[in-house]
Each structure stands twice: as C-alpha cells, then as structure tokens.
Amino acid sequence: MWELSERDREIVAGYLGRPLMSDAEVVVRRRDTATPVVIRNAPFTADGTPMPTLYWLVDPVWRTAVSRLESAGGVKHADAAIDPEAVARAHASYAAERDAFVPVDWTGPRPSAGVGGTRQGVKCLHAHVAHVLAGGDDAVGRWVLAQLAAGVGSCGEVPEVVFADAVPAVHASAVSDAVPAAGSSAVTAVHADAVPDAVTDVGSGTGSAVYADAVPDAGSGSGTGAGAWA
Known about the structure:
11% strand
C-alpha cells in the first residue's frame, strides 16, 4: 500500500507543479504511455493533516478536458441533472472507502465529507471523474464521462486508460520517459468514448479491465442524469 516509484513521483510532481504532500499510489494509468492518470492518496499528509481527497485526477490532458467542461457550466448542469440521492450515495461511498484507510487506533483529526471533501451537491468534477475512473460508484463521474464523450464544452479528446495493475512492468518502464508536458496535445488520444461500460464491472480490482469504446447508457434509469446538454 502507498507504493509510488520515484519516476511516478517525479511525473506527478511535474503535473501538479509541486511535490506530493502525502503518500500515494497510482491506480489508473494511460494506456499509451503508462503514465499516471489517477492516484490514490493516503488519508493524512506527512505531518498528520487530514487529506479529504482520496482520488486525484493528475493527467494534464484529462484535467484540461474536465476543466473545459467546468468552464462551460458543467458543475451547474451536473447539479441540476443528477438525482441528489445519487450524488449523496457517491459522497457516502467515497467517504467510506477513504475512511477505511484510517488506522483503527488513530486519535487525531480525521478527513471528513465526501468526494474531494465536499459535503453535499456537486463542486469539483475532477474529483468525481477520478473516483469513477478508479472504479467508484459515482453518478456524477459517469455523467461527466458521458459529457466528454459527446464533446460538450469543446473539451477535446482524452487518452484511453487502464487500471494500474493491468500495465506490465516492462511496458511501464519502457515508456515512462514519454511524459507529455502539461497541456500538450502530442499524445496518442482516443475520443472520450474510451470510458467504462459499467463502473461496477471495472471496480473489481482485478486489473483486467480496459476502458474502451463504451459510454454509460443515458437511459439507464439509475438517476445519473447522463447525456449531453445542448
């Protein structure tokens, strides 16, 4: 647990513009370069400060795409489109997963709230995307992936991803130097239909699933509110 290679640590620090403040591990990688897309943070920073953000979307291409969606009004649209009970379930499942990493004998301050530290509603689409790509049951994350697939907000293309343990070590080491600069378009990209067919299926932790060519069904009746706005 919390094993992050020096190379991955350098890559993530380059993406964020600063060193990581807590232990972490890569849970989702780009399929073309094997570089980190989503990391899972320990529940506390090095000095014991609670870390509410369990899953962090770090890949610059994915981050830019989601930022463009937010700039186009994505947070407001998501909040209006998605059943509040489904949003609450996403926050509850996120909090439960994060809290499971808190040591049983911990007596200090603890991380609180749900996705990315949000107590209710929708605030950070990046955090929800990170959660769903990591296999979480997140209606907001599924909704965002559907918007990316539809090209809402001129969000552009995003690279295909795989679970980190589905990337052979030899491949990861062979391509680890092929790190795109932040904002670079020089990547082997696929359209945003490279998303999970069923988040519950890819969340098994087997590492055998590849996210490819399947957009969540907008008519699933699950209260996700998936589907593009005009």
